[in-house]
Amino acid sequence: MDIRPLTDSYSVTPQILPEDIPVIAAAGYTTVICNRPDGENPPDLHAEALRRAVETAGMAFVVNPVVGGALTMENVEAQREAIDAGGKVLAYCASGNRSSVVWALANAGRQPTNDLIATPAQYGYQLGQFRELIDRLANG
C-alpha cells in the first residue's frame, strides 16, 4: 500500500488489501472510499468483502465506483459528500488516479484549479485534461 496525501484529510492509494485495513485505521483514517468497480477485481477484493473488514475496524466505507472514461456527476457528488462528512479520508482505485480526478472535481471552486491539478501531479497523476471541466464546475 502506498498512501499519497493530497491534503491533510484526503489521501489516495492503489488497491487496498484486507491486511492493509489495520494499518489504515491506525493511521487515523475514518472513511475509506472505494472508487474501483468490482469488475476489475477478484471476488476477495470486491467492495462488499472489503466493507466488512473496514467497518469492523471502526471506519466508514463508501462505495463510489468510477469507471474509466465514464466518470459521472453522481460520482463527483458522492465523493464530495464523503469528503464533507469530515474526518480523514482514504480513497482507492487501481492506481489512485481516478480517486485523484474525482477529488479534484469534487473540490472545484473550493480550491484554485491550478492547485487541484498540481497536487496530484506530485504523484504522477496528470489531471491537466480536466482543467476546463474543473473551471466549469467552479463557476457553475
Show the helix and strand layout:
Blueprint: E1 4-5, E2 10-13, H1 21-26, E3 31-34, H2 47-56, E4 60-63, H3 73-84, E5 89-92, H4 97-106, H5 113-121, H6 131-138
Parallel strand pairs: 2-5, 3-4, 3-5
Antiparallel strand pairs: 1-2
Helix pairs in contact: 3-4, 4-5, 5-6
Key traits:
single chain, 140 residues, alpha/beta, Protein-Tyrosine Phosphatase, Chain A, 5-stranded mixed sheet, 6 helices, 39% helix, globular
Write structural notes for this entry.
The protein is an alpha/beta fold and about 140 residues long. The protein has one domain: Alpha-Beta Complex (Protein-Tyrosine Phosphatase, Chain A), CATH 3.90.190. Helix content is about 40%, strand content about 15%. It has helices spanning about 20-25, 45-55, 75-85, 95-105, 115-120, 130-140, and strands spanning about 5, 10-15, 30-35, 60-65, 90. Strands 1-2-5-3-4 form a five-stranded mixed β-sheet, sandwiched between helices. α3 (about 75-85) packs across α4 and α4 runs antiparallel to α5. The longest helix has 12 residues, at about 75-85. The mean pLDDT is about 95.
